[in-house]
Amino acid sequence: MDARHRNHTSSLYKTEDDTAQYPMDNAIRFHIGPDNISYWIHARDLPGKPASHGCVGLADEGMQNRVYGIPEEPLVLDSEKLYEWAVGENEYEDDTGEAEELEDGPVVEVIGANPEYR
């Protein structure tokens, strides 16, 4: 993991109503491809559903509530918890929420085959 960005948004995708770039809260970059496309672990509204071209989406009802107004009381905050544990202020300096490259970031290994969607 070489960068963090608490308030990241997609450079490729927009929200359902096309009014804003898709939110990718609690983003941790784990790869930059040869085409200069970055891949992130980040909050998503529909975990487990195909909607990405390589990122890893984690459930985060806090992001869903902020963007869509539901659920009323967010309980599932997986992306927030991973972000704090892996790249939060306990491990690194103050987090302003802006994009920040990390020196000696934690190592992540993504293994397995790409899923087949039918």
Task: Please describe what this structure looks like.
The protein has two helices and seven strands. The protein is of the alpha+beta class. The protein has one domain (3-101). The strands form two sheets. A five-stranded mixed sheet has the order 6-5-4-1-7. The model has no long low-confidence stretch (mean pLDDT 86).
Give a short synopsis of this structure.
15% of the residues lie in helices and 26% in strands. It is an alpha+beta fold.
Tags for this model:
7 strands; five-stranded mixed beta sheet; alpha+beta; two-stranded antiparallel ribbon; 26% strand; 15% helix; 118 residues; single chain
- Residue fraction in strands: 25-35%
| H/I helix tally | 2
Based on secondary structure, the structural category is: alpha+beta
Major sheet strand order: 6-5-4-1-7
Sheet with most strands: 5 strands, mixed
The tally of strands reads 7
Low-confidence parts: none
pLDDT average, as an integer? Answer: 86
Order of helices and strands: EEEEEEHHE
Tell me the span between the first and last alpha carbons.
Answer: 31 Å
Number of domains: 1
Helix proportion of residues, in percent? 10-25%
Radius of gyration, taken over Cα atoms and rounded to an integer in Å:
14 Å
Shape: globular
Give the helices and strands, then pairings.
Layout: E1 3-5, E2 9-14, E3 21-23, E4 27-32, E5 38-44, E6 56-59, H1 61-68, H2 78-87, E7 100-101
